Amino acid sequence: MMKLTEEQKQKRRDYYKNNREKCKEMHKNYYENNKEKFSEYAKKYYQIRREEIIIRTGDYYKKNKESVSKKRKEFYWQNRIENILKQRKYYENNKEKILLKASKLWIEKPEVISAWKKKYRAKYPEKEKARNLAKYHVEIPKGQMCELCKLNKATDRHHEDYSKPFDVKFLCHKCNNNLERIEVKNDE
Ligand SMILES: [Zn+2]
User: Fold this and answer.
1) Rounded to the nearest whole angstrom, what is the distance from the C-alpha of residue 62 to the centroid of ligand 1?
2) pTM score of the predicted model
């Protein structure tokens, strides 16, 4: 890239200041048209400076924990369906590995599982309450299909808001599990 003189740089900054919207639009278009190139470049950059990036993002996360996890959650809810489908695909492709790992843990370290469950319940008392209320008061309609994948029969009740225990979505076990997993991840 050509080196710019201070004067040129200043000019550029001024231009940007005065034409912010136009510049933004231009950048966006440029990005859209060269998306692949950018992602290729980003990948390369990441490979070369991996450790540095990991440390940097870790620091950033520590300093901005709340806003980061809020953004993550927002992102998750905006891309919920895609995320679930992605996770499902990952699960389908790695089913044996995942199940083996889980069942091994279940057999070898049941205390880990029950401790985890206990902790989970203590951490989310409102969740537990909403679940129990729904379980005994909201019946899953006969023949109800999963509201997310629309492929499997609904077997689970899913809350999007635990302060509304009777407001549930009927999901299959798979989709519900995927949602739970993502929620737990986001809360960590
Ligand atoms: Zn489903």
Assistant:
1) 35
2) 0.40
